[in-house]
């Protein structure tokens, strides 16, 4: 970095001294001397420019090596860390989907077992009431006793099954550990990429300085904002509670809609 | 009551389908975005549409607009169930003629409340 600053200072001081000399030479009427000075000025600038472009290229090359992308390799896509990260995130989507479906399968299998028990208990309860009110014949009571016994057996069987399904639901949540690890790795990679990009941007800004290129940031930003399509949707808001333009829950939505006359 | 559930994630469609079944609505169909949903709506006699916003192909807001622009579908009650939580978006949906708006993550209770409210209004 110190080297870069020295370079930039060098450019500035050369510009200053040459500019003064240029005016003096011109005032003396020495046109060919003036042209010679302009030529020298150009050379200083070009030298700086080449150096900066060279550094930028080297930095780009480093970045490529860091991310294990060999542009010459036909398998560049497969070996790059970014492609790997894409695969990893795909794995997260697959795992979470599998777990959600497994959990829902188990819930859907459990619901009828509970319904069966509830229905049988309801029937027994009605008949048991009749028995307690002495509204039941001996013949009917024998039938009731048989159904109670059957119910007890069925209850135990269903409870065992439900307990096993609950256990499976619990186990289906093991994706959290695995996907958590994968996401942490990808997050670290994104931070790395951001760091390297920042370095490249810094390098490029030195090139801009020598080349005299100026970027209108405001305009770039407004152009990017225009390219966003609000109706495409943005997905979940992460910091909903800290933002004014985002609702923080269903109550907020209801308030907003009722303020609109809903 | 015939209901169409539109969401690009099959798990979310399944959750909504199960919740609707608990509420007594058993006649449901599914679509994964607006492009597949619209022809289903146009050819089937659906009484209610539950749609996500953010989907590939045709989004939920565009589907809502297409429904409102269709002479035969324009009175179809539409409930949006979505993660989109910007105030501007909710206003946009209201202006496009949505009948209810539920933000994810949501509870069974909220879904039931909004559906009851929509039918109260439609039948009342």
UniProtKB/TrEMBL annotation, chain A:
Gene3D superfamilies: Helix hairpin bin (1.10.287.500). It is an enzyme of class 3 (hydrolase). One of its GO terms (cellular component) is bacterial-type flagellum. Residues 218-251 are annotated as: Disordered. InterPro entries: Chemotax_Pase_CheZ, CheZ_family_phosphatases. It is found in: Cytoplasm. The keyword Glycosyltransferase does not apply. Pfam families: CheZ. Its EC number is 3.1.3.-. GO terms for biological process: archaeal or bacterial-type flagellum-dependent cell motility; chemotaxis; regulation of chemotaxis. Its main location: cytoplasm. One of its GO terms (molecular function) is phosphoprotein phosphatase activity. Keywords: Chemotaxis, Cytoplasm, Flagellar rotation, Hydrolase, Protein phosphatase. The record marks 181 as: Enhances dephosphorylation of CheY-P. Plays an important role in bacterial chemotaxis signal transduction pathway by accelerating the dephosphorylation of phosphorylated CheY (CheY-P). Belongs to the CheZ family. Homodimer. This is Protein phosphatase CheZ. It comes from Pseudomonas fluvialis.
């Amino acid at each position: 970095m110190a080297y870069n600053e020295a370079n930039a200072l060098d450019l500035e001081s050369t510009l200053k001294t040459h500019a003064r000399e240029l005016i003096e030479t011109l005032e003396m009427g020495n046109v060919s001397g003036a042209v010679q000075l302009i030529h020298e000025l150009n050379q200083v600038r070009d030298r700086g420019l080449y150096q900066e472009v060279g550094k930028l290229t080297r930095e780009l090359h480093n970045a490529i090596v860091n991310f294990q992308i060999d542009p010459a390799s036909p398998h560049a896509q497969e070996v790059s860390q970014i492609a790997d990260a894409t695969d990893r995130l795909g794995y997260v989507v697959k795992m979470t989907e599998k777990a959600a479906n497994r959990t829902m399968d188990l819930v859907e299998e459990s619901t009828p077992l509970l319904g069966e028990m509830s229905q049988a208990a309801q029937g027994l309860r009605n008949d048991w009431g009749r028995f307690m009110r002495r509204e039941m014949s001996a013949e009917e009571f024998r039938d009731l006793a048989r159904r109670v016994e059957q119910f007890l057996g069925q209850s135990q069987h269903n409870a065992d099954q439900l307990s096993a399904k609950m256990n499976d639901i619990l186990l289906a949540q093991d994706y959290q550990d695995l996907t958590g690890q994968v996401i942490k790795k990808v997050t670290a990679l994104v931070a790395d990429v951001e760091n390297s990009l920042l370095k490249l941007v810094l390098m490029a800004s030195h090139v801009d300085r020598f080349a005299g290129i100026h970027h209108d940031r405001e305009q770039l930003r407004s152009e990017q904002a225009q390219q966003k399509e609000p109706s495409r949707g943005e997905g979940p808001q992460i910091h909903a509670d800290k933002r004014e333009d985002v609702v923080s829950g269903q109550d907020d939505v209801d308030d907003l809609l009722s303020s609109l006359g809903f | 009551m015939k209901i169409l559930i539109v969401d690009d994630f099959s798990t979310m469609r399944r959750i909504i389908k199960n919740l609707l079944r608990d509420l007594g609505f058993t006649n449901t169909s599914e679509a994964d975005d607006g492009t597949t949903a619209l022809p289903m709506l146009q050819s089937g006699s659906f009484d209610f549409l539950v749609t996500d916003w953010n989907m590939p192909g045709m989004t939920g807001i565009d589907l809502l607009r297409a429904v409102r622009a269709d002479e035969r579908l324009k009175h179809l009650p539409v409930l949006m169930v979505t993660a989109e939580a910007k105030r501007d978006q909710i206003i946009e949906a209201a202006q496009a003629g949505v009948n209810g708006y539920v933000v994810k993550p949501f509870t069974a209770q909220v879904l039931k409340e909004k559906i009851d409210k929509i039918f109260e209004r439609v039948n009342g």
